[in-house]
Amino acid sequence: MMERLGLGDAWSKLPRSVRHAALPMLVLVLLAFYPSYYSDLTSLIGTNSTAAQLVPTVPTMVIMTVYVIMALGLNVVVGYAGLLDLGYVAFYAVGAYIAGWFATQQFSPHNVHVVSVGVPHTVQGIHVNVWSLLLVGAVFAAVFGIVIGLPTLRLRGDYLAIVTLGFGEIVPQAVNNGDNWFGHNITNGPNGLTPIDALGFGSLHNHWSFLPTVYYSVTNAVSYYYWTGLALVVFTLFCCIRIRDSRLGRAWVAIREDEIAAAAMGVPLMRTKTLAYAIGAFFGGMAGCFYAIYKSSTFPGDFSLNISITVLCMVILGGMGNVWGVCLGGAVLSYLNYQGLEAVGNNFNNIAGTSFNVPQYTYGIFGLIIVVMMLLRPQGLIPGQRRKVELELGVEGGSLYEASSQ
Amino acid sequence: MTDNLLEATKLRKEFGGLVACNDVDFAVPRGSIVSLIGPNGAGKTTFFNMLTGVYTPTSGEIMFNGHDVAGLPPHAVTHMGVGRTFQNIRLFPTMTSMENVLVGMHSRIKGGIIRSVLRTPGLRREEREAADRARELLRYCELPKSADESYAMHLSYGDQRRLEVARALATEPKLLLLDEPTAGMNPQESAQFTSFVSKVRDERGVTVLLIEHDMKVVMGISERVTVLDYGQKIAEGTPAEIQADERVIEAYLGSGATSAGNGEAAGA
After folding, report:
1. Residues of chain A scoring pLDDT < 70
2. Structural domains in chain B, sorted by start
3. Which domains does chain A show, CATH number per domain?
4. Which of A238, A243, A254 is opposite residue B95, by nearest beta carbon?
């Protein structure tokens, strides 16, 4: 007992920043070593048992990182700035096609290599360094966000949602028909772009042997993709937190709460909203680019409305405005989507002796989860502080004083 | 000619067929406290909204500090030095007092995206200075220290009013517009607020324009008073002149009040 008190004292004496960072750091370390203890986890349960299917595989973890990045990006738009965006998948598509254009043989009569890694110079097409493409894809998506944002962000609420929904549908359609844009084959239409160059460290391998020349040259390539995805998540989280606590982050919250008051305090509405769009799009584009590189392909079919809705669900389920909640929401829903539901279904069938095809009901089950969440815990799994007080007192509508005197 | 900080000439605003503001000429001398009064629906708030960029005037010009601000977006007007409060308090309810004031400083600090992500030494210094100034403003507006980190929605009514003034002052205004600041206050609080407004003018060199219904407040602090009725300016002058003006009495008390003197309406 005494010793526990002593530990507690020592803990509370640590600087606030250390105490705040401790739990995320611990989780990060546990996640970083996931590929090395994944097989131990399954063998603990029984390698070939149905229950072992519940443990997320490393490929599932890669998908989870992609969705967590997207959810964090959408959280900037929806959670911070309060702009409902139903077409977020458009930015994801932009990122993916940037990878598709600048790291495949699509434009094959041309032969341009820019610091490409692991691609022989005899391979035709444009091959830009894939690492830089992650950034280029993100920047292009951000520019695209500004281009979409400038005309649409003059709208508010429901109208904005409808217009973004439109853009979310236009992009995959345009890509689908992009095999003949004024006589040029730009996107290769429904056949998609493949193969996309793999990530890799090229000649750095000679200095540090644990860095593979190209990911597919090593047997645990998927672990390398996972670590890359995890690094991108950390980068996204870092940026989101820093921007949230900045002048721009405050302006977003102010706009979300009261546009007229925010403008009267000197916050330029259009500019600030467009920046929210651009930053959200930046991470969406990065996620799309990474996903395309991981799959080594990109198809118009990858960018359905479902993805926009799913990512929005992740943000709402996790806790709008809270980065940790959004990470959790993104991880949980993408896990369920790609592995969990099927595994749960198999276990259920195994025990109950039934034969439900659970993945068939995925969206029904998602809908049910959201409805139950909204009834029992509308603020999300890990709610943001603001959202919590807001729901406590129901500020929206009514003047401030009326609301607070209830 | 006097030095006017704000000068509106033939300012007009129509909503469809309704003329909410009918060719009003209006001036606020630098360093003064001026009141705008009038019955409900006289066009006072419309006038405020044109000054602050919420509405674009149908015609006329608004010169502020030598620049035409008519039709500029609200944030640009604020940037030029017009701070305001609202008739119905419009704080950011789920932001703390400190954050509310920091939003007010938006146009006075820089803090770009990349610098914010990298949290450069320059940015840290800027944020620290902004926080110091915000705390100083909150003290100046007589908000208790304990309110700094509480959400605006949790503050008492009086503190919310004071916070709104603090937030408006954070925009570093040359002209402070107060829209019915003493609404809902008891006489004692009103008196306290009146002396606070005079203090702000004297100590910070801020020119004040207020819309007010409480005649005691208006007559107590204003150097000049302008009266609007049905979108038209019906009188302008010192508080004493306004109190004696027949048209003003008529507008406020109904035509019977003055016509009774003429013997037309018996027993008014």
Report:
1. 1-5, 393-406
2. 4-81+173-262 (3.40.50.300)
3. 54-404 (1.10.3470)
4. A254
Quick one: pLDDT at residue A158? Answer: 86
Contact A182, A192 (CB under 8 A): no
Place of tokens 């203090």: B199
Q: Give me the half-sphere count of Cα atoms (radius 13 Å) on the Cβ side of residue B207.
A: 20
Contact A399 B91 (CB under 8 A): no
**Of the partner residues A265, A268, A387, the one whose CB lies closest to the CB of residue B104:** A265
Enclosing H/E stretch for B243: helix B239-244
For residue A249, what are the β-bridge partners?
none
Q: Which residues pair with B177 in a beta bridge?
A: B84, B209
| Chains A–B, number of C-beta pairs less than 8 Å apart | 134
What is the per-residue pLDDT for A226? 97
Instruction: Write out pLDDT tens, residues B44-65.
Output: 989 999 999 999 999 999 999 9
Residue A275: list chain B partners with CB under 8 A. 113
Instruction: Give pLDDT, residue B251.
Output: 81
A401 closest CB neighbour out of B52, B89, B113:
B89
C-alpha to C-alpha distance for B265 and B263, rounded to whole angstroms: 6
Q: Which of A269, A71, A120 is nearest to B107 (CA)?
A: A269
What's the one-letter identity of residue B15?
Answer: F
Partner B, chain A 197-256, Cβ-Cβ below 8 Å: 238-239, 242-243, 245-251, 253-254
**Predicted pLDDT at A155:** 86
The alpha carbon of residue B152 is apart from the nearest alpha carbon of chain A, in Å, by: 9
HSE-up (13 A, CA, CB side) for residue A16: 0
Of B74, B91, B104, nearest to A400 by CB-CB distance is: B91
User: At A181, is the secondary structure helix, strand, or coil?
Assistant: strand
The answer to whether A243 contacts B117, with C-beta atoms less than 8 Å apart, is: yes
Cβ proximity of B158 and B185 under 8 Å: yes
pLDDT in tens, B83-110: 999 989 999 999 999 999 999 999 999 8
In chain A, count H helices and then E strands.
Answer: 18, 2
Question: A171 CB contacts (<8 Å, ≥6 apart)?
Answer: A87, A89, A90, A93, A94, A303
Asked if B161 has any chain A CB less than 8 Å from its own CB, the reply is no
Amino acid at A395: V
State chain B's mean pLDDT as an integer.
89
Looking at residue A279, its pLDDT comes to: 97
Contacting B residues, span 48-87, partner chain A, CB-CB under 8 Å: 52-54, 73-76, 78-79, 84, 86
Torsion A338-A241-A372-A88 (CA) sign: negative
pLDDT band at B267 (very low <50, low <70, confident <90, very high): very low
If we measure between CA atoms, which residue out of A64, A111, A104, A19 comes closest to residue A318? A64
Distance CA A290, CA A141 (A): 13
Q: In this complex, do A404 and B155 lie within 8 Å of one another by their Cβ atoms?
A: yes
Rounded to a whole number of angstroms, the distance from the CA of A245 to the nearest CA of chain B is: 8
How many angstroms separate the CA of residue B98 from the nearest CA in chain A? Answer: 11
**Can you tell me the distance from the alpha carbon of A310 to that of A64, in angstroms, rounded to the nearest whole number?**
13
Among the partner-chain residues B76, B94, B160, the one whose CB lies closest to the CB of A257 is B94
Residue entry with tokens 């601000």:
B69
Please state the ipTM of this predicted complex: 0.89
- Asked if residue A106 lies in contact with residue A190, where contact means CB atoms within 8 angstroms, the answer is no
pLDDT for the residue numbered A213: 84
